[in-house]
Model the fold of this input.
Amino acid sequence: MSGEKKAVALVVSGSIAAYKAPMVARLLVASGFRVIPVMTASAERFVGGVTFSGLTGEAVLTSMWDSTFAGEMHVAIARQVDVVAYVPATADLIGRLATGRADDLASALGLVARGPRIVAPAMHPQMWQHPATKRNVAQLVADGVTFVGPVHGVVASGEEGVGRMAEPEAIAAAIRSAIGVQDLQGRRVVVTAGPTIEDVDPVRFLGNRSTGKMGFAVASAAASRGARVTLIAGPTHLATPAMVQRIDVRSTSEMGRAIEDALGASLDRADALVMCAAVADYRPAQVSAAKEKKGADRISIALVKNPDLLGEIGARRTALDRPVLVGFAVESTGDQLLAYARRKLVDKKVDLIVANGAETAFAGDTNRAWLVDEQGDRDLGTLAKRELADLILDEVKARLHTAR
Ligand code: C5P
Done:
């Protein structure tokens, strides 16, 4: 980050999830932000202000009527911050924001602030589903507010449903991307995305269910953080993200050649390779030049193994720490997922494996994911692919700090 520190007003309202807000403050401080904590009256019943002032080095603001403050507090604070984040946001606070109330510092700030507003709701699933909440959320979305979560899971009452606050990492990532931090400026990132398709004959092929959404999210996030991005995409209908150079490929071997070109023979043309593509492990031994005719009741197609693109680069990189290598692991065997992911980390000699279950990984806009590296496993919960993209790039960035 260059220049003056970016500043975040971290507004905490009264929900059990408030106990996780200090984690968000810590992550933002670690990212180099100035964090100004603001607490509603009810938030103070759930978590102590001392925690926030200790973590942020800032006074905790709780009331507009603090006579020691010179001037109008809500106006002065709004001018100093680049983003206002409500973490957690209760149903009540969401209602007040949606209707433009300004009866406390938390809501008044939202009316004065000019930058992005981020809301991380936390409430009982029935409150989240209530038509009144839905109306308020729709209004805030129409007003340009960004929502992070809530996610599905067990809530404070012990019941299960959508209402849990998003994980602190996901919230911090959304705040960073809203501010548009250019922390990958000048970095060259190669991303693969989508399926690869292996032709059987001129009309038939073998493929898989990958849509490319995850890889496109990584490419888009990297570009918005200032990186020079090459996106090598298997067949998909997705639009090319802004500021991204896209190379379309079809088969695994085409993808391999495109990666080779992008990284260069000595792997020095890129700082990171993020292999999101669901690469076909096998291809037909022969591709018929003419369409195969219908005939026998039972036929078989001989398949030969494709090269492991990521594994080959991992093996070639041995003495270097660049490019940073990130792979994905998708398994339908839930209980073995992390064990397989760890094996991939070692076998492919990569820095990070993003593990996700086959049930959630494809097609949707969210992903249930874990990060697996030599330090251990980190459960990220369910999060939007764009949020996951930013978390992956945070990991890449952390590894780029080591000198070549
Ligand atoms: O071994 P598996 O296919 O599960 O490993 C997944 C990871 O390896 C993904 O990052 C994928 O892009 C990459 N991969 C590859 N070449 C292959 C198969 C997978 O680069 N032939």
User: Anything to note?
Assistant: Residues 7-179 form a domain with the Rossmann fold fold (CATH 3.40.50.1950).
